[in-house]
Amino acid sequence: MSSGSVPVIGLIGGSGTVGRTAALRISAAGLGSLRIGGRNLDAAMDVAEECVGPAETVRLNLTDGGDLEEFCSGCSVVVNCAGPSYLVLDSVAQAAFSVSADYVDVGGDLPAADALRAAAIFPERTAIFSAGAMPGLSGLLPRLITAGRPLRRLETYVGGVARFTPLSAADGLLTRGDRFGEAMASMQDAAIVSNSVAPLRDVQLPGFPMPVQAWPYLTTEAQSLGHLPGIAEVRAYNVFASDRLTRVMTHAWAQLSDSPDHDELAPFIPSIVDATVADEDEFGSFYVMLFTGRPARGYDRGITRVVLRAEDSYGLSGSMVALATERIVRGEVSSGVHLAAEAIDPIDAVHWLRADPLVHELVVQ
Predict the structure, then answer these.
(1) How high is the pLDDT of residue 2?
(2) Domain span holding position 224
């Protein structure tokens, strides 16, 4: 990270649910002076007033290259909580790098990280993508279980009930294809095995407050866990309270092109938001991450279960973004392009999250 007496941290999308939490956590940690940018200046000013440290606000159009370069200039780190992240890709990261700033993105995943790696610019700079709840924590916390001995199987269950924003609905529609994962697949001996896992219906899982629907989806993040030494099998599930959301998402995907733009996505977004509202009205709001491991025979039991419970994924993502920013500001992440699950120590994440009031419970056993 660039040296300086008081780092300036630029936060794009700071007035959203994720960005607001990130702003408050970054400010409370004393990481530097905040520059909060977004289209809605009044909302950004409200967030700035909540911060305990210095914070300024700037009107920003993310699609305007001149606006973006001016916003990033003078920053030590630029943090992006705006999107849709899979349309933004590495454009904000490139703008940050061009003015000698490091970069943190709540989303992006492999498409954005690979695009920035391919650009091969400013190798001395640092970028962390997928610094949210999922992807991010969903690939980081399982590493508490994978460390130290081989596993016969690692299972991940992530989800719950939360009202989608239009932005999160758009992001959800864009996360399909080989660069994101494969439904009904597992990872066995470091190879993807298609159609090898069935959905779990009305299953009671540890940490979840009610029986849920668990749909197998082997994300690229889960696939990376399957490449860790000694992991024989990985199964990954997205968890829902009902089948409302999966029905409307499947309907939308059947009609969308392979690379939809915002105009093509727009007609499908209201039904997705409505499905999550209906779930919240019926079941309330909750968000749970459950990770379990079965050690190989003859090895110590070690850590076999991690359970995290939170109100929703948005605040959790904001806290994770702040942690990734803190790691860069403190000089704990090497130069280059990283995914958060591979760049942050999971034990550091546990300490950070247990101190966050948005996390209701974090059990490691």
Answers:
(1) 43
(2) 148-302
